[in-house]
Amino acid sequence: TKLKEWPWAMGVLSQEKADGTFANGNLNADGAFTFLSRQGTIYPMGEMEELATEMRRFMPQGFQYHGEILVEENGVILDRELGNGVMSSIASGGKFEPGQRPVYVIWDMVPLEAVQAGKHSLPYARRFTAIVTALKNSGAKSIKPIPTRICKTLRQALEHCKELVAQGKEGTVIKKPTMEWKDGTSKDQIKLKLTAECDLQVVGVLLGKKGTKNEHRAGSLSCVTSDGLLKVDVTVKNEKMRDDVDANQDNWVGSIIPVLFNDVMKPSESSDCHSLFLPRMAEAAY
């Protein structure tokens, strides 16, 4: 998309790229509320009743809401790795620890009938204004509009992204105020985020997951930094590369490959090593 040709004079919406678990929130006309994952899995709502109550109390019924679930612990939002780990547990029937609760940050609302139709013509600026208006002075604790800044120039949008990255966040999503909603990708909204490249050494070849078409073929490359402090698995890029890895594993193990990533993740309970967020082979790699 040609960003310089966007309607900056109207005010482009620059929104924080939330570091949570994506969820569609369906609020039916009868007040029933459910969360669905991106794949359509329904979350158990027993642990999120306070959030559901606020949705029924403050938000218009008959809409699907789009946003991300963050996890707050003792008043502080947990880092992405920890928060998403908690939500994975909740999705499997787990419970929040004492002091933890979910917070739903919302960036869009679409009538349920429009979701079924796959499109909605109301401009995005009006849809988001409806969210802000519903929550303004509501006192809601578990639902919030996504933090947003109105930018009148591309430079302002890039500065906003830079500020958030400096705070350790992923970046921003900029959206045309005139953007219509459709079920699919849109050039009227663009992610701005930090992307960096590093060189990693391949130390092993991992087979594809059991039950998949690549179960007995190369699925990813186990990679490390030269100091051994970072380890990550990088998915094999394409079928041409997979054929080559299968046929020449000895050539790949010990080789150095360029990897793109969006963040460095700290060691966790499951690993003493650092890792990378969204690692993938650089275009020039193969």
Blueprint of the fold:
Elements (H helix, E strand, L loop, with lengths): L11 E5 L4 E7 L5 E4 L12 H10 L4 E11 L2 E2 L2 H12 L8 E12 H6 L1 E2 L3 H12 L7 E3 L2 E4 L2 H13 L4 E5 L5 E2 L6 E5 L2 E12 L10 E7 L6 E5 L3 H9 L1 H4 L3 E6 L1 E3 L9 E3 L2 E2 L5
Parallel strand pairs: 6-8
Antiparallel strand pairs: 1-9, 1-10, 2-3, 2-4, 4-5, 4-6, 7-11, 10-12, 13-14, 13-16, 14-15, 16-19, 17-18
Index terms:
23% helix, alpha+beta, 286 residues, six-stranded mixed β-sheet, five-stranded antiparallel β-sheet, 19 strands, single chain, globular
Rg, nearest Å: 21 Å
State the helix count.
7
Q: Outline the low-pLDDT stretches.
A: none
Question: End-to-end distance, in Å?
Answer: 26 Å
Percent helix: 10-25%
Secondary-structure element series: EEEHEEHEHEHEEHEEEEEEHHEEEE
**Average pLDDT for all residues:** 93
Q: What form results from the Cα inertia axes? A: globular
What do these coordinates show?
The strands form five sheets. Strands 2, 3, 4, 5, 6 and 8 form a six-stranded mixed β-sheet that branches. This protein has a five-stranded antiparallel β-sheet with strand order 15-14-13-16-19. Helices cover 23% and strands 35% of the residues. The model has no long low-confidence stretch (mean pLDDT 93). The longest helix has 13 residues, at 154-166. With 286 residues, the chain is an alpha+beta fold. It has helices at residues 49-58, 80-91, 112-117, 124-135, 154-166, 239-247, 249-252, and strands spanning 12-16, 21-27, 33-36, 63-73, 76-77, 100-111, 119-120, 143-145, 148-151, 171-175, 181-182, 189-193, 196-207, 218-224, 231-235, 256-261, 263-265, 275-277, 280-281. It is built from seven helices and 19 strands. Strand 2 (21-27) and strand 3 form a beta hairpin. The two termini are 26 Å apart.
